[in-house]
Structures are given as C-alpha cells and as structure tokens.
C-alpha cells in the first residue's frame, strides 16, 4: 500500500499530463505566490520543479493575513493538446470573474496572458478536446451542484454553449475535482467525493460521448482509505495518465496523520502514485505497483544566483517584490513589526518531511518561523543580542522563552519525534526552537506540533518554513533544510 508521496509537502490537487517520455505535474497553491508549482519527471518517481505557472504578480490575486489563508488558487488542470500546454484553474477571490486559462508552447513558459472563462461559477475546472477539436470545460458547479460542462473557445475564454449537468457523483459530499480522460471508445469522468478529509474518495463514470450521459462504475469508489487504519489517509482528488508503454497510472492527494486519536497531519495534502489496471473497461487501482522511496528533500541555499529557486513562495505577495538574491546573499526588505504576528514579507518553503530541521544564517534583526497561517505559528526571533521564541495559537501570542545570544546567532527550528509514555496522549511531533552555538543546538522552547496541524488550524495548506526581516538591512547568507535531524 502507498507509503511515501512522490511530491511531499503541501502539493495538493495533482493534475498530470504526458508528452512523449516526459511527465508534468501541476498543483494548487492557494494564498502563496508564485502560483501553481510545475514539476517534471521521466519515471513518475523522481520529480524536479521546473517553475510556477502563474509567476507574474499581476496575474495572481492572493492576500495576506488570516482572511487570505487558503484563498487564492484552487485545483488546476494541466493538459497538452495540439502542440501546446494548457492550464486552467480558479482563483477563489475572483470566482465571479471566471476561471483562469493560460497556455504555453513549452512547460517552462513563457505562459500566455490569462483569459477568463466567465459565467461558469464553481471550482476545479477541467479542459478537454473531442475528436473534432471542440474544447470543453468541466467543473464542480457551486450553483447547480455536481459536475457541469460547457463548450468554450480556449484562446479567448468565450463560453459557446449553455452549461449542462453531467453527473452528481455517487452520493458522497462535494462532488469536485473532475477530469475527463479518453481511453479507446470511452470518455471517463474522474471525480473526487466525500470532502477532502477522512471521507475522501475517488469515483468514476463513463460515456461514449464527452458530454454524456455518464454511467457510474459498479465498483465505486475506486480508491479510498476511509474507515481504515492505513498510515496514509484522505485519499482522493486524482488524475489519470497513460504511460509511454501503454500502461496507466493514477496520481492523487492524501495525508500522513500522526499521533494519538484523533491524529493530526501537518504537511498538508501531498501527492501520491498508484498503478492502474483496466478490467472490463473500468480502472482498478494497484497501490503496491510502485516502490516510492522517501523523497530527497534536503537543500542549502546561499542565494548567490540571479533569481530565487522556484521552491520559494510567499503568502499574499510576490517574493520578487521584497527578496533580492545576489553575490552578497539575499537582501530582504523589512517585513512585519516585531510586536505583530501577521506576516507581510515572509519568504518560505514547504515542509516536506515528517521530521526535519531548518537553519538560517543572516545579519540584522530577523525571524525564522514554521507556520500554517498567521494564527498558527512558532517563531524564533533575533533582535539585537537577544533570541526569543514566540508561539501564536489563534488569538494568543506570547514570547515563551528568551536568551542572550550573539548578534550573528544561527536560528534553528527542529521537528522531532513526540516522545511520550506508552498510552499517553501524543501529538504528531515536537517543534523545538532555538539557535545553534559552538557547542551545538541550544533549545529554548518545545511546542506540541498539533497546534500547527490542519486539524487545529483548518484550511487547505500545510506547514511552511519561512524567514522574515524584522528590521532594515537584513541579508540572509544561508538557509539549510534537512529531512530528519542533523548529525
């Protein structure tokens, strides 16, 4: 059964396409900029981030603060048709203005100016073409309920037909995440149901015509871990791809909850892989087909290039507006005031491991943080010659520890195993915050990781680890992330 994600960390709602021997994956990005991370692979196991599709700030309405959390960009669909890559998605802040549709001749871009597909109110749009070249958008319809469809002009976004209802699913909550897949004489409509939580599942229906009517599979749901003790839970929101050798695979989102009841997941919804067999014209999911090892996630960034690596993101604002790499390191414009907790110019990366450590070496007044949102975070703040640990849980914000330290102290946060007596209540992990000294890690505070979990914070994202300038003249010389614990 599935154990390890192919794209770890908060990378939900995967959409996949193949061009020859190359595979491409796109994901939701919500309030973070740049939007829609894009990955490439040749074997479906090892993936490299190529960039972000919505990488121009003027094309991305994302917002700071708790009110902006889990807003922004919802589930995309990525397809290749007639020599072009296409991506369609929804910005929930602009849902009334229509879905966002862009295209490019190469996956690395440049991506076109976005057009709006107006009037099709909902989320999770899919794009597909029939044999005559007619383009169909299929989406989760918040007005009619269930899955709906309309014909569009993909270059202008103009809607060319009246919307029609396709399928309401099998009765599970929130029929969403539709994808239309052609195989032989059949069109398959892949859908997520049950809500993106413990009841999540993948269902499917088919029709000889792209516009239905659709007949549900007799074995629905074709994938779910609901009511099981599997380590991986909330399996759903999937996409199918035909491999170069004619076999098939499924990518889907899932979580890795930990701790005692009711268990907590911290890194958001991640992307997993399964094999597919076709039996009597229906897909049968084989979760054991691929041996996916733990991803190699460690990296060190000294910010000495001309541009940031595409892994770097920021809530509610483009990193390019305040983070400037160069030969001397990364210059950060001043962010929040030290007395406030709402990030203004936070440069962050997704946490990708269950256990990890992160260190930042910088000059000036600076903070290193791990967070779900502004209301759920742990921060190590260095101001002058003092290092302090701040914990924010909902409306509560308190400095729980402080110590004198060198003005150049390396700030560090570790996510470690939650050690407790057998039978005792146990969170998903412990977040240990402090700084590095010549003698090793100096821990100032330890916090139960469940307070930085989706089950507590809510929303659709996961933990990110970030750095923010608390004063003028901050230069980051080195950021190091390591899965597991440092030696």
From TrEMBL:
Pfam families: Glyco_hydro_43
InterPro entries: ConA-like_dom_sf, Glyco_hydro_43, Glyco_hydro_beta-prop_sf, Glycosyl_Hydrlase_43
One GO MF term: hydrolase activity, hydrolyzing O-glycosyl compounds
Active site: 13, 176
Signal sequence, start to end: none
Listed GO biological process terms: carbohydrate metabolic process
Keywords: Glycosidase, Hydrolase
Marked site: Important for catalytic activity, responsible for pKa modulation of the active site Glu and correct orientation of both the proton donor and substrate: 124
Coiled-coil regions listed in the entry: none
Family: Belongs to the glycosyl hydrolase 43 family.
Protein name per UniProt: Family 43 glycosylhydrolase
């Amino acid at each position: 059964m599935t154990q390890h994600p192919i794209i770890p960390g908060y990378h939900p709602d995967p959409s996949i396409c193949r061009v020859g021997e190359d595979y491409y994956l796109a994901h939701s990005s919500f309030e973070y900029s740049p939007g829609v991370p894009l990955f490439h692979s040749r074997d479906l196991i090892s993936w490299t981030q190529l960039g972000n599709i919505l990488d121009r700030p003027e094309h991305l309405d994302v917002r700071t603060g708790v009110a902006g959390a889990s807003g922004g960009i919802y589930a995309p669909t990525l397809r290749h048709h007639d020599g072009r890559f296409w991506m369609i998605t929804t910005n929930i802040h602009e849902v009334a203005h229509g879905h966002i549709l862009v295209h490019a001749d190469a996956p690395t871009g440049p991506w076109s100016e976005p057009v709006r597909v107006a009037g099709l109110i909902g989320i999770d749009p899919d794009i597909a073409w029939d044999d005559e070249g007619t383009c169909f958008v299929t989406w989760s319809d918040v007005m009619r309920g269930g899955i709906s469809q309309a014909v569009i002009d993909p270059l202008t976004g103009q809607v060319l037909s009246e919307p029609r209802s396709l399928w309401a699913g099998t009765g599970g909550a929130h029929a969403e995440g539709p994808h239309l897949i052609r195989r032989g004489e059949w069109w398959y409509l892949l859908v997520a149901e049950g809500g993106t939580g413990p009841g999540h599942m993948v269902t499917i229906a088919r029709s000889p015509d792209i516009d239905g009517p659709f007949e549900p599979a007799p074995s629905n749901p074709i994938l779910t871990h609901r009511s099981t003790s599997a380590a991986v839970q909330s399996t759903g929101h999937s996409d199918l791809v035909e491999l170069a050798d004619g076999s098939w695979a499924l990518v889907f989102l899932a979580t890795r909850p930990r701790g005692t009841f009711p268990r907590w997941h911290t890194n958001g919804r991640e992307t997993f892989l399964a094999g597919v067999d076709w039996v009597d014209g229906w897909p049968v999911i084989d979760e054991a087909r691929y041996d996916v090892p733990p991803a190699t996630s460690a990296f060190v960034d000294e910010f000495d290039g001309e541009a940031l690596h595409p892994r770097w993101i920021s809530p509610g604002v483009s990193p390019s507006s305040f983070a400037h790499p160069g030969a001397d390191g990364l210059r950060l414009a001043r962010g929040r005031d030290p007395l406030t907790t709402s990030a203004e110019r936070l440069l962050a990366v997704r946490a990708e491991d269950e256990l990890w450590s992160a260190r930042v070496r910088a000059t000036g007044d600076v903070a290193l943080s791990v967070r779900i949102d502004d209301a759920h975070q742990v921060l190590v703040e260095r101001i002058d010659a003092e290092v302090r640990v701040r914990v924010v849980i909902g409306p509560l914000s308190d400095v729980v520890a402080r110590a004198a330290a060198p003005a150049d102290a390396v700030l560090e946060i570790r996510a470690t195993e939650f050690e407790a007596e057998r039978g005792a209540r146990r969170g998903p992990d412990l977040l240990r915050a402090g700084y590095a000294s010549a003698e090793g890690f100096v821990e100032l505070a330890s916090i139960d990781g469940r307070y930085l979990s989706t089950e507590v914070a809510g929303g659709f994202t996961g933990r990110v680890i970030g750095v923010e300038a608390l004063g003028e003249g901050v230069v980051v010389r080195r950021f190091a992330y390591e899965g597991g614990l440092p030696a």
